[in-house]
Amino acid sequence: MRSLNEPLVSNGYTLEMTPERLGWLEPTDADLPLEQLREKFRQNGYLWLKGFFDQDAILDFRRHFFETISSGAKTFFDIVGSQEFEDFCTMSRLWNFYQEFLEGQPYLHKRKIMRFTHPGDSHCTGGHYDLIYLRAGTDKLCTSWIPLGDIPVEMGGLIYLEHSDAVGRQMEAEFRANNANLPPEERISAFNRNMRENGWISTNVVEMADRFKSRWLIADYEAGDMVIHSPYMIHAATLNRDPLGRTRLSTDIRYQRAGDLIDQRWAQNWVPGDNL
Ligand SMILES: O=C(O)CCC(=O)C(=O)O
């Protein structure tokens, strides 16, 4: 395990660097038998699959993204809605994996998110679990978080609250009880009166780790890796402080079985202000 030169910061809060509050994400060999992968996913709420993709497939897409943007050929949201991105998200490596992992025909939510963060951008993803935004569908849902290029810890990749799948389940049960009397539209909304800022649990990652007596797990992600997380697993991101000045580019896309209940609010491409 390497040491970090700079403290990690998220939305103005500096992560506590003690072994009780900070740890490393556990990598998993993508070639393990499926039943072992499923068991680890159930236990940990995530799988960090090292070298899942052929690195070139990832680096080619990264290059395509930056070339397209810098030539002015397309805007960011044009790329998000493009056939090239759809093809990337349905490539056979991913599709075949999910077909086996989910034991059924996969369905990819059309609302596919791409994020890029320049060094010093102060906005970081706040602590949340994904079902907050996808309450109108099944909870047998997997998010694939894919670094589009290397994202070492200093570049502000995703951080996971250890063992928080159970915390998310309990919170959601409480929200469900509190939301029971709201009108149907509001009941499934991440922004209803029972929720907090942007549907996030909190932007204060320090207080969250204390409150749940847990550690934030960090990782040096590499191009070719994929993390899968459960819809209850709490995660956030930290500030990009890359000394080399690189932009952090990633995508988060969601798969489930085609036959399970689908949240139709996610059946459109992601566009600014879609309020989800
Ligand atoms: O990449 C990020 O900063 C956030 C990603 C995220 O929230 C997710 O993968 O569900």
Describe the structure.
The chain has a single domain (18-266), classed as q2cbj1_9rhob like domain (Jelly Rolls, Sandwich). The radius of gyration is 18 Å and the shape is globular. The strands form 3 sheets. Strands 4, 5, 6, 7, 8, 11 and 13 form a 7-stranded mixed β-sheet that branches. Strands 3-10-9-12 form a 4-stranded mixed β-sheet, with no helix packed on it. A two-stranded antiparallel sheet has the order 1-2. 28% of the residues lie in helices and 20% in strands. The protein is α+β, with helices and mostly antiparallel strands. The longest helix is centred in the N-terminal third of the chain and has 16 residues, at 55-70. Bound molecules: 2-oxoglutaric acid (AKG).
In short:
This protein has 276 residues and is an alpha+beta fold. The chain has helices at residues 34-44, 55-70, 76-80, 83-89, 92-101, 164-179, 184-187, 205-211; strands at residues 9-10, 13-14, 22-24, 27-29, 46-50, 106-108, 113-117, 141-147, 158-161, 216-218, 226-229, 235-237, 248-257.
List the helices and strands and how they pair.
Elements: E1 9-10, E2 13-14, E3 22-24, E4 27-29, H1 34-44, E5 46-50, H2 55-70, H3 76-80, H4 83-89, H5 92-101, E6 106-108, E7 113-117, E8 141-147, E9 158-161, H6 164-179, H7 184-187, H8 205-211, E10 216-218, E11 226-229, E12 235-237, E13 248-257
Parallel strand pairs: 3-10, 4-5
Antiparallel strand pairs: 1-2, 5-11, 6-13, 7-13, 8-11, 8-13, 9-10, 9-12
The protein binds 2-oxoglutaric acid.
